[in-house]
Amino acid sequence: MIRRPPRSTLSSSSAASDVYKRQLDEQKKIITGLNNLEERMEQQSRNAHKIAEFLFSDDTVSTVNHLGLKSHPDFEYASKTLGGFGSVFSIALTATDKAILDFQEKLNLFSVSEIVGGPSSTIWHPASALYGSVPDEIKRLLGAENNYFQLSIGLENIEDIQGDLQQALSS
User: Fold this and answer.
1) What is the pLDDT of residue 166?
2) Among 44, 54, 105, 145, which residue's Cβ finds the most Cβ atoms within 10 Å?
C-alpha cells in the first residue's frame, strides 16, 4: 500500500507544486498539438504545393522536385496512394554559385536547418552544410550540387512565404 505524506508536507512544498503545474501545462500542450496535428499537416501540404507551383513557374528555378506537381515522375502513383504530397521538396536554381549562396542568405522567413516537417519554414543547402570540402564532381554524384536546396514549408501565411522566396530570387 502506498502511503500519502502528511498534508503539511504537501502544502509546504511550493517548488514541487510549481513543477507539477508546469508538467500539467506541458501535457496540455502535447495533447493540443496531437489533437490538431492532422489539420496542421494538411495545411503545410497545401502551402508546399502552392509554393512548388509558384517556384516551378519561376525562370530562376531550373528544377522543382515535389510529388504534387504533375511533372513529377511519381505524381500518378502518389496521387492514388498518399493522402497528400507533404511539405518537403527540393529545388535547383539556375544562378551562379555566388547568387545561389546569396539566395539562402536573403531569405527572412526561412530558418536554415536540416530538420524538416516542423511548423516553421526551413531551408537547407546540403552542398555547403555537409559537403563543403568535397569536390563538385563528387557532390554531383551524391546529388548535392551547389544549386540544390531542400525546402520544408511551414504554417506561415502563404503570401508571406511566397513573397520571401520571390524577393530572394529576384534580388
Assistant:
1) 96
2) 44
Please, what is the angle between helix 158-170 and helix 97-106, to 10°? 150
Query: What are the tens digits of pLDDT across the range 122-148?
Result: 999 887 777 677 787 887 787 777 888
Q: Is 122 helix (H, G, I), strand (E, B) or coil?
A: strand
Q: What is the pTM of this model?
A: 0.77
**Which one, of 64, 128, 120, lies nearest residue 90 by Cα?**
64
- What is the C-alpha to C-alpha distance for residues 45 and 34, in angstroms, rounded to an integer? 17
Strands (E), 19-121: 61-65, 88-93, 111-112
The mean pLDDT value for 101-117 works out to 89
Contacts of 115 (CB under 8 A, 6+ apart): 122, 152
Among all chains, which residue has been given the C-alpha cell 551562379?
A: 96
